[in-house]
Queue: 2 jobs
Job 1
Amino acid sequence: MHEQFDLIIEHGRSEKNYWCDLWRYRELFYILSWRDIKVRYKQTVIGLAWSIIRPLLTMVVFTVVFGKMAKLPTEGTTPYAIMVFAGLLPWQFFSNALTESSNSLIGNTNLISKVYFPRLIIPASSIITSFIDFLISFIIMIGLMIYYQYLPSWNILFMPFFIFIAFLASFGTGLWLTTMNVKFRDFRYIVPFIVQMGLYISPVGFSSSNIPEKWKLLYSLNPMVGVIDGFRWCILGGGSKIYLPGFILSLFVIVLTMTYSIWHFRKIEKAFADYI
Amino acid sequence: MSDIVIHIENLGKSYIIGHETRERYTALRDIISNKTKQIVSKSKYMLNGGQLIAGVDLEEFWALKEINIDIKQGASVGIIGRNGAGKSTLLKILSRITEPTTGRVMITGRVASLLEVGTGFHPELSGRENIYLNGAILGMTRKEIKQKFDEIVDFSGIEKFLDTPVKRYSSGMYVRLAFAVAAHLESDIMIVDEVLAVGDVEFQKKCLSKMGEVSKGEGRTVLFVSHNLSAIKQLCSTSILLNNGEMTFAGTSKETIDRYLLMNINTGLTNVFIKDHLDEKEVQIVKAEITDKDDNKRQQFDISEDIFIYLSILCKKAIPNTYGYMAIRNSQQELIIESDTYDYLPNCLDSLNIGLNCFKCKINKNVLAFGEYTFSISLASEFGNNFLLDTPGQILKFTIQDNETSRGINRKALTSYLLKLELQHVI
């Protein structure tokens, strides 16, 4: 008699058509992303300009502190500002995505406790807002290149690949954090800390070529090292070199985090309404 | 068989609740050690996948237990019960928001659940934008919403404010818009939780008639939770009654509501009844209490004890042919013992003296089974000013334990009468 029913609800039963459901609910995904973008700068005076000011100021500070005062070397002959910004692009995306997505489930408590839909949509759609910021920053990057009259190399054609990797890194980590945040609200305090520390640990304000050779592999355990190096390679071209073993390690860490996060998320997704 | 669209089988849901343990005095040392213990036990527990609500001492709490229901296509079923009876938990499981702990549910058809009006409304967005947002959250596609957009706006009656952020709406407008979106949801099964508690009377009427249309006109299956009993009566032909997570009754809405009302009466009853203020009645019951054979007032008895009920009846004027009706009901409001004063002749109420009259009534041991009981009494006479002289209804409550028999509280029989097998002879 089971065959006549479309849907069976049972303890520990994961639906076989979860991924189909995800596809079915894609409109909700669009509309939630659209909502987040739309609401983002409501009741702010300068609105979208915030997306420009924040990375621009960070870039100026880093260029002055690391480039001018600490006199760290740039990569090849690239202006220090461009080198910083090439690293800042993926980092800002990553840190925004982390902040946004880690709070996404808790921020949508009312939805989770009242309506059913594949919960994966919520953190996924929250990353889209960060991606919009990323695109805006990219325009600044172009402006910066024009200002310095800097011509990027052909490597820039590989950009989409590295954007995709940045996406995976952000989504994987963000997903894990948001899942943990539902259960342990401690993570609300941990995430800003990770973001702040990460800015200095990752090669954002300086080039990763400053890292001594023997520590390079260990340093690459930080997934953002691979991503940032990749971005620099694309934008700065020949002057920047990718440390291949490190890059592969970063890539490996990213894929591992992603897989684990999705598995973990799926495992406790059904109990979200009880925890939240 | 094939027209059953919702099949619920042995459904249960448990939560773990925590209690704080209190100590008599607290030293800093204790606080530190307790806190450490808490952190360790909490994190251990949560890592193992538990859901902690508060506190250290953990206790399992069943919000729903052994629910079995079959619902046919096109039926509209009301769910009633007190707060905390498990109604919302049941709806949450049916709408896949939370997972059951035991049992299962099988459903055919598209389910639309409406546990709250205006879920996901964003205050900063305009009415128009919120229609799309809310529609998508409830599972409509953009195409569907577009098709129904005018209907929704019409129903809500807020055309003028369509492009105003909903945070500027009055709460009435907000609710109207929210319900309008939900009412135009297309689905085979609709699950609705207490949405009519909001809005003014006129709008409530509009909602009710829309819901009636949905269930009767379009042949959709509707599950409806409400504290508004007249709405249930109007919308649902059948209903189920939940109490403490268990389904205590299922039947026509009228019967179910009657049960529910009866159930509410006997809360707050004890083993003593004392009338607060005397009234003008000719004959009235002023006091009643339950005791054991040694005249100790008690509420709990064992099946092997005789139970005595003492009644004090104040008589201002002797009324001929007065008789008393007595009933004992179990917690399900099922009649277990029914009796009146004509069962033993002469009728003891025929010779009431002016003033206070005391009566005693014995319930023999091994009659009532393990459980909770209420005692009710009413007095009547065709010669009184009113036929019903005094009808206090259910006035006493007592419980019966079973510590005597080997099966104890697992005995399911309605009485506790014991059968004795005696050896006669050996062949």
Job 2
Amino acid sequence: MAYNILIVDDSLPMRGILKRIINVSGFMVGQIFEAANGKAALEVIDREWCDLILTDYNMPVMNGLDFLIELKKNDLYRDVPVIMVTTEGSERMVKKFMENGASDYVKKPFTPEAIRKKLNKVMGETDDEPEFDDSDEDLDF
Amino acid sequence: MNRNLMTAMRTSISEVMETMFFEPIEFSEGTDGSVFFDENRKNLIVVNVKYQGPFSGDLCCFMPKDLALSLASNFLGEEVSDVSDDQAGEVVKEIVNMTAGGIFSHYDKNAVFQIGIPEIIKKTDMDDCGAEDAHFLLAETVIGRFALNLTVL
């Protein structure tokens, strides 16, 4: 099964790098959607089906925690897994993310491997090593 | 100067540069940065982020444009000639964002610091940061040097 993924981050380069990692991770990807903050992400979710969300915390307009809380209030979307991908490293904040329904957490800076493992863990996929091809889309970033 | 904060700065920027850019860095000891600023004053991308928590202040990164373009090229997977100044600025903002988060989690993993949104600002010298208690680092990659200045107000 191919999964539709929503990436929420105010940094365009960060969304780009996550997209590249996901595309070469061996993870079955359908469409990848992007949003620059929580409010924009809620608008994307209203019109597109997303199986998994990766979101930053520190964003203008609506931060990742407020987005998570809003998402979990809605019966239609509350079961969509959310992985927090953020610089926030304090134990108290990580606990807050998990208490509010985040499925997992990846701290920036991250390795491509860390992202791949979390995707597989959260979606219940086997964690086999990906078979990378020789295309231009490599993992150098 | 707080030595633990300085150590956290070193650890954090090293992690960011090695993990996201595959660029190991070294630090220039005992330098006040004046030579760096004299050499690069007209060609710097300066990004600032404010933070609040048990103590407050800001983190400033002074990066020569050529180095920023090169790092952005690496990060975005594009040729340097295809990278715009805006893209380079966005990448420096992300470096500052990740570094700030890392500094405070290395310094005290139990404390909660609110980190603002990084902004590109017009400054050409670390004196402009208005530091009351500054923590200055000059970091060296194989492709160039850049400076970080953390103030504690």
